[in-house]
Design a protein that fits this description.
Layout: E1 2-6, H1 16-19, E2 27-30, H2 43-54, E3 59-64, H3 70-74, H4 79-95, E4 100-104, E5 115-119, E6 125-129, H5 131-134, H6 153-188, E7 192-196, H7 214-221, E8 229-234, H8 235-239, H9 246-255, E9 259-264, E10 267-270, E11 275-278, H10 290-299, E12 305-308, H11 326-345
Parallel strand pairs: 1-2, 1-12, 2-3, 3-4, 4-7, 7-8, 8-9, 9-12
Antiparallel strand pairs: 5-6, 6-11, 10-11
Helix pairs in contact: 4-6, 9-10, 10-11
Length: 348
């Protein structure tokens, strides 16, 4: 596997100089962040980003994410223009050496949490999802890191209503059309397209979500048999639902060579109402067995990209919630140690 680290560009307090000091770190996962959603990324910006990353001895082979415009998901307005722009971004990224593009089809909201800096028992701060808090929130006034903040509350309300109107099957129809349009371009340019599951994997605020469980992942992959049509399998997203057997998913989809990118984090499931807390990567800190997860990847011969996903804020660090340096670096070392052990033991 190839260990990578999420990097948010020159404004990220976690610098490339820090990232390259993490043992076994091969590259960063990044994007062009200052171009509006739906527009074509200028070649000079892609090149500048790649050159900056390469100057620190790191690779830039994974882009996370190329955002999918809401008009595409709703198949309305300028959806065809935005799809054409998405295709051009695939071509341009391939020309600059990118091998995998992570994207998602989550309506309106990306990953959703009720608190960004919940103090855990050990004094660290973490992202949490408490259902009773979510139920009290006004979705038109929410803002979380990574979300598209260009919409007004009125526009968000309109989007929510539009998604409620089309429902699950309407969203499936629009995703099917999107894949039929972009995948031939990805195949032509030898790019792996890796959809990220919904986070969390159930409807939020009455809005449909469809990349949520094994049945839906099977339905998604059945849209095209080409292996470049694949997954970003996220342990924290799918693993926060007790109905998902995440280890079995890894065995199934890695064995079929349909996982192109792995997000590895632990979560602690709280009660039975969907609440959870993000924790340290160490297995006993949460509800997921990271050794079994990595063993499933190893036994399947996985050679793709991984990254330590959201980390806590520890040792007084402040910064982008979920994306500090210290805990993710600890996670990278923990995951790398498990992998080295599996390699030396032959996965037995």
């Amino acid at each position: 596997m190839k260990m990578t680290f999420r990097w948010y560009g020159k404004d990220d307090p976690v610098t490339l100089n820090y990232i390259r000091q993490i043992p076994n770190m091969t590259g960063v996962v990044t994007a062009v962040y200052d171009v509006p959603v739906g527009e074509v990324w200028p070649n000079e910006k892609i090149k500048e980003l790649k050159d900056e990353v390469h100057s620190y001895g790191l690779d830039m082979e994974v882009i996370e994410s190329v955002p999918v415009h809401e008009d595409i998901k709703l198949k309305r307005g300028d959806y065809q223009l935005y799809i054409d722009n998405f295709k051009e971004n695939i071509r341009r990224l391939a020309a600059h050496g990118v091998k995998t593009i992570c994207y998602n089809f989550m309506p309106v909201f990306d990953w959703t949490r009720s608190e960004l800096n919940k103090e855990l028992e050990d004094g660290s701060n973490a992202l949490v999802f408490y259902t009773d808090q979510i139920d009290k929130l006004d979705p038109t006034k929410l803002s979380l890191p990574g979300w598209d903040s260009s919409y007004s509350p009125e526009e968000v309300a309109d989007l929510i209503k539009s998604y409620q109107d089309i429902g699950n099957e309407g969203l499936w129809d629009n995703l099917t059309y999107f894949i039929s349009e972009i995948l031939p371009v990805a195949i032509e340019n030898d790019i792996n397209m890796a959809i990220h599951p919904d986070d969390p994997p159930w409807p939020i605020f009455g809005i449909p979500r469809i990349i949520t469980n094994e049945e839906n992942l099977d339905r998604f992959l059945a849209l095209n048999d080409d292996k470049r049509h694949g997954l970003t399998l996220c342990s924290g997203s799918l693993g926060c639902s007790t109905t998902n057997d995440f280890v079995a998913m890894v065995k199934k989809y890695a064995g079929a060579e349909r996982i192109h990118f792995a997000h590895l984090r632990n979560v602690k499931i709280i009660g039975d109402d969907g609440s959870f807390e993000e924790t340290a990567h160490y297995s006993s800190c949460g509800s997921l067995d990271m050794v079994e997860i990595l063993k499933a990847y190893h036994d399947a011969g996985f050679k793709g990209y991984v990254r330590p996903d959201h980390g806590r804020m520890i040792w007084g660090e402040t910064g982008k919630p979920g994306y500090g340096l210290y805990d993710r670096a600890l996670g990278a070392m923990y995951l790398g140690g498990i992998w080295e052990t599996l390699e030396k033991l032959g996965g037995k």
